[in-house]
Amino acid sequence: MLFSFSHGQEWIQLVNQDFVYYFKPENRKLVAPIDSVLSSQLKNIQRTLNYHASNPIDVFIVNKAAEMKTEKVKKQPGSVSLLSGQIVINVHASTQDIASLFRKECAKILVEEMMYGGTFQDKVKTNNLISLPEWLIPGLQHY
Length: 143
Description:
Elements: E1 2-4, E2 10-15, E3 19-23, H1 31-49, E4 57-62, E5 86-90, H2 95-116, H3 120-129, H4 136-142
Parallel strand pairs: 3-4, 4-5
Antiparallel strand pairs: 1-2, 2-3
Helix pairs in contact: 1-2, 2-4
């Protein structure tokens, strides 16, 4: 399936049970090796947290970070992200760097999903019902 994002760039989408990969045609051959690294890392994180993701994680495979510009918004205390988790992988990074970045970003995604739920409705409901200390979520992510 082809997607057009900014500047008319065509992206290909590949879905498996754990991930939704977005990549350009020239990066097609890199999806399988990256999937192998990310799948093993995801299994380790899920085992450590004793929690399994309810939705596939979006993974963007890019040639340079400029392809995926995102605005960094500082979260306010008591706020929760309503967007699904996304991880951007640079094809020029080493295997160790990819694994390290993935562990960090995946932990954020899974901890937020575990604490607030996986759907929009769950996140709003949970955020309104409980008041977690400001340090709890970042602490769990780093743990």
